Amino acid sequence: MINTNVFDYVNVLDKAADASWKRNEAISNNIANAATPNYKRQDVSFENELRHALLESASSTMDGRVGDLNTKLGRLQPSVYTDYTEVSYRLDGNNVDIDTENVELAENQLKYEGLMNSITQEFTNLQAVMKSF
Questions:
Q1: Residue 82 has what DSSP assignment?
Q2: pLDDT category, 1, cuts 50, 70, 90?
Q3: What phi, psi does 76 have (nearest 5°)?
Q4: pLDDT class for 86, splitting at 50, 70, 90?
Q5: 42 - beta bridge partners?
Q6: Please, is 55 exposed, middle or buried when counting C-beta atoms within 10 Å of its C-beta (0-12, 13-18, 19+)?
Q7: Residue 42, φ and ψ in degrees, nearest 5
Q8: Is 41 exposed, middle or buried (CB count within 10 Å of its CB: 0-12, 13-18, 19+)?
Q9: For the segment 2-47, what is each residue's pLDDT rounded down to a tens digit?
Q10: Calpha distance 103→27 (Å, rounded)
Q11: I want to staple 46 with a disulfide (CB 3.0 to 4.6 A). Which of 15, 19, 22, 102 is the partner?
Q12: Which residues pair with 79 in a beta bridge?
C-alpha cells in the first residue's frame, strides 16, 4: 500500500465548500426575513478558524500545513451564529440590510464556485498523474 496524502487539499476544500453552502443558507434566510420584526441576521463562522488552524501548524510549507490540518479537520466545523452586534436602523429591531445581504450572497456564490473549481482541478490533476503510470 502506498502512503499518500493526495486528498489532503480535497478534504480541506470540501470542508470550506460545506461552510460556504451553510453561509448561503444563512444569507438566504436573512433575505427571507428582511421584513420580520426583531429578526437578527445570521452568519457562518469558519474562515478565521481555518486560518488559525493552518497557522498553528509547525510545518513551514503549505503542503505540510494542509497535511497537519487534515488530522484536525473533523473538529473544524462551520458554525451559524446570530449577529446581535449590527445596529438596527429600523424601529422594529430587525438588523437585516437587504442590499448588504445581496452583496454577501453574490460574494459567497463566487467563493463557492471557486472552491468547486479547485476541487475539480485537484481531481483533474490526480487523473493526469494516474494516466501517466
A1: E
A2: very low
A3: -90, 100
A4: low
A5: 82
A6: exposed
A7: -120, 155
A8: buried
A9: 345 778 889 999 999 999 999 999 999 999 999 999 999 999 999 9
A10: 10
A11: 19
A12: 45
